[in-house]
Amino acid sequence: MTVQSRVEFASATDTGVVRKFNEDSIATDSEIGLMMLADGMGGYMAGDVASALAISVVKEELAAALGNLESVENDAAKRYLPQTLAVKRAAEKANQMILRVARKNSQCQDMGTTLTLAVFHDDRISIAHVGDSRLYRLRYDRLEQLTMDHSLLQGQVEAGLIDSGDAKLSHNRNLVTRALGKEEKVEVDVREEGMLPGDLYLLCSDGLNDMVEDTDIELALCELKANLPLAANLLVQMANDNGGHDNVSVVLARVRAQSARRGLFERLFGWFRR
């Protein structure tokens, strides 16, 4: 079964209630099983430039890299061209492009962007992550955060300097410690996860998770997982209803059942987890 028939995508983005410009950029590509989100920052209204560059470069790089991978007929050879390496290299290329544009244009100085993306392939999902835009997974109606924020606040929580329950009130919650376009070399977190039929994945900018509790996100996804466009629009509306202090963007992907046998395995596995 092809990626196009196995994974369904939907997305939504909004400026929010307070901001005048939307510096988020999002994209999906069903041909290569890609979903990605970038949250721009800095410069003279250039955050949108940084995020758009990141999306454009990564999409182009991955289309070429994964297209070459599909042309490799030997399964053993494919293991030496993993998707995780492709997503890492694509993020690094985007970092270099953003730096190059910033140096040539004074209005773009100090611009940068987060980047979180996922590529679906076989029974795996490859993830690349820089910054504090998040990737969640809803599996058996339980929401789990798959990425760790690269932020000053997260560092304080890990060091025990602040309680996770008080983190929402911190003035440091939007200060990122990693971003594309800030240094010559960027550290990109990459990993692979197994995926199951029925899994629902959510990419979001901090305009969602700063405004809406994870428990409410989980409830909305559980209720509307059969209608991804409606779920995406509802999450954006929930963020705006709670204040909409930032741009808010979401990208959703649902893995369809591949066969009756696989669907039976999913139900049995879910039953044993209860």
Automatic annotation (TrEMBL):
GO MF annotations, alphabetized: protein serine/threonine phosphatase activity
Gene3D superfamilies in alphabetical order: PPM-type phosphatase domain (3.60.40.10)
InterPro entries linked to this entry: PP2C, PPM-type-like_dom_sf, PPM-type_phosphatase-like_dom
Domain PPM-type phosphatase: 8-255
One Pfam family per UniProt: PP2C_2
Protein name stated in the entry: Protein serine/threonine phosphatase
Protein source organism: Sulfuricella denitrificans (strain DSM 22764 / NBRC 105220 / skB26)
